[in-house]
Specification:
Length: 345
């Protein structure tokens, strides 16, 4: 089922939690809503689910205007981080619950419910555990039961709010891979909320980066990491350095001095680059600073550098340097970005 979100606004009192949000989700896509706390991710997910309604704008499920339809009418499945299973019900009873409570006219026969539950157990790889109670399962198994329960009603779209948030890092990673495979097998349109960029970049077909109730960028992991469209996205995803620069007749000036890199345009801007996108340089027209710390990573090193700033606090920059490059604590170092982006103004 494809979903179209048109110019959604959501106010709580006078506070706009979402402000003119538009998004098209293709049928079968796996979409991550990524952003800092308070950016509006959960609000958007709840509006798609029908747990809340927009102040303005529409939500279409296919050609149907679902903006004011209830959760049941929309037929969505959702899983929340804290979405507790029913403790007094077995795994099988939990999964079958949504079917069992349907009105008699649409409720499947008992044997059919049993068949569907066993199919779902198989799908989430929990066959054999159907008689267990939630407190006899691991956290990861419980989340898989929650997913199976959401899937049981054959939802048109699956909505997950930080589904792995409460789990430890290792289980989280396993479930992440598992969810990707599960999605590829079942092909459900899926939207999940996360504030973990690694999770979003690894899992999603497209990542929706949100900030302050607005969508900043929508794109693949490569798009948002390699081609961030705004200063916010550049600094929110991955590591980066930001320096104020001036463009003058095709050259880039920092503190009035040329940097040995070129870019068309005139006037002030903010230059962003990533630690891995620099090279050490002996040239006079390069950035220069003092090494204040040096950390060894697996195959490389990170040098922390302070660039003097005319009596103000120095600019702090982190760059990746080759393992055997002569970089010494307290010494001066010269380097240049090899890839950068300048946002004008
Ligand atoms: P987190 O990652 O912390 O869950 P989020 O990106 O999901 O954050 P939302 O929960 O969507 O953010 O909240 C967006 C903004 O709307 C926040 O400033 C929040 O305080 C506000 N908000 C959310 N729900 C309500 C509500 N029911 N009443 C008033 N304000 C609300």
């Amino acid at each position: 089922m494809d979903v179209k979100i048109n110019n959604i606004r959501k106010e709580f009192g006078r506070f706009p939690a979402l402000n003119d949000v538009s998004l098209k989700i293709a049928s079968g896509e796996l979409i991550a809503l990524l952003g800092p706390s308070g950016s509006g991710k959960t609000t958007l997910l709840r509006l798609i689910a029908g747990l809340d309604f927009p102040t303005a704008g529409q939500i279409f499920f296919g050609d149907e205007d679902a903006s004011h339809h209830s959760v049941q009418e929309r037929n969505v499945g959702f899983v929340f981080q804290s979405y507790a299973l029913f403790r007094h019900m077995t795994v099988a009873e939990n999964i079958g619950f949504g079917l069992k409570v349907r009105p008699a006219s649409t409720r499947p026969a008992k044997a059919e419910i049993r068949r569907r539950v066993s199919e779902l157990l198989d799908m989430v790889q929990l066959s054999g555990l159907e008689k267990r109670y939630p407190n006899q399962l691991s956290g990861g198994q419980r989340q898989r039961v929650a997913l199976a329960r959401a899937m049981a009603i054959e939802p048109r779209i699956l909505l997950l709010d930080e589904p792995f948030g409460a789990l430890d890092a290792k289980v989280r990673k396993e479930l992440r891979r598992w969810l990707r495979e599960f999605h590829d097998r079942t092909g459900h349109t899926t939207v999940f909320v996360t504030h973990d960029q690694e999770e979003a970049l690894e899992l999603a077909d497209r990542v929706v980066v949100m900030s302050q109730g607005k969508i900043e960028q929508v794109g693949s992991a490569d798009d948002v990491y390699d081609r961030p469209s705004s200063p916010f996205v550049f600094s929110f995803i991955g590591e980066s350095t930001q320096l104020p620069v001036e463009l003058k007749s095709g050259t880039v000036l920092f503190q009035g001095e040329p940097l040995g890199i070129t870019e068309a345009g005139e006037g002030p801007g903010q230059m962003f680059f990533r630690p891995e996108d620099v090279e050490l340089s002996q040239a006079y027209d390069a950035l220069s600073g003092k090494v204040t710390a040096c950390r060894r990573l697996a195959g490389t090193r990170i040098a922390e550098i302070d660039i003097a700033n005319h009596g103000h606090a120095p600019y702090h920059v982190e760059i990746e340097v080759p393992l055997h490059a002569p970089v010494e604590l307290g010494s001066d170092i010269r380097f240049r970005p090899t890839r950068w982006k300048i946002f004008r103004g």
